[in-house]
Amino acid sequence: MRLKLDKLGRVVLPKPLRARYGLRPGTELEITESAGEFALRPAKSGPNLVEVGGILVHQGVPQGDLDIVKAIGEDREERIQHLGGME
Question: How many structural domains does the chain have?
Fold first, then answer.
């Protein structure tokens, strides 16, 4: 993939790439360089899972095109069928 710098030295990451890595406006990136190349990656800001009231809660940014409401609904349906012996 080739990208161009604008006159201020900025580069725009294509939307599919931003979506794949969960990059949103304001996401901090970290740059590392070595032997004539550099790499961008999301800056680590701490643990993604933190305990809140005895429950682990994800504090990170969802990656990709995950529909969390649909995923939770599907998981609940599976559990209901399992508990009801309807598998």
Answer: 2
